[in-house]
Amino acid sequence: MLVHPEFDPVAVHLGPLAVRWYGLMYLAGFALFWLLGRKRAADAWRGITKENVEDLLFYGVFGIILGGRLGYCLFYQPSFYLAHPLAVFEIWQGGMSAHGGLVGALVVMWIYSARRKLGFWNTVDFVAPLVPLGLMAGRIGNFINGELWGRPASSELPWAMVFPQAADGGVPRHPSQLYEAGLEGLALFLLLWIYSRKPRPCGRVAALFGIGYGVARFMSEFFREPDAFLGLQALGFSRGQWLTLPLALAGIGLWIRAGHRAKKDAARS
Known about the structure:
This protein is mainly alpha-helical and 269 residues long. It contains nine helices and five strands.
């Protein structure tokens, strides 16, 4: 059985400025987006240039942060933030939603694609494999902060971990942050990167992201302690699982639709 090392959430102090590990993880995710995006843009058939990558990153930062924050407020504690609207801006208190961040990113890509006359689904196909490593970095940030820990686990599980930050700090738990980093982060990245190495029907890479993230998040939530103020909900699922199901179903629908469109295009040619 392991014990969480209780990292200092502040990586370094620069005078009065405290640079936190969680913020550095966001920066790492954005840096990986830029590096890998430029590599993908080298393939002319993708229809996205290196300049487009830089623009998408610039605008995407705002979409992810704004969407992530608003998503948390609306999906997880709407009554509290309706009663305390100024608390929405207190980002330093924590509270970001991966689902909200994805919605924010999609809105930004839709606007950008329309303005630059790029196909929306082609843009999403390009961006989708660049997202999981950012998700992985965020989960590692959660682990460093000692937050969003897992459900109780058997003390005989070799990697069961005690999180002293928890109210019942002596209970061994699943390090679910690392499960999520591995599943919806590294594993999903490898799946999408390999699948998208050659041309695919438009929308298929985006669809695979929706399905892959949906399955990975849904499964990992079985090991994650639900938010104390929400608990488990209908059918014993967490709020995160209920938010993830529509994404997975949309991914399946988009996969089928992309296949039908590809067959129609092939028949016309």
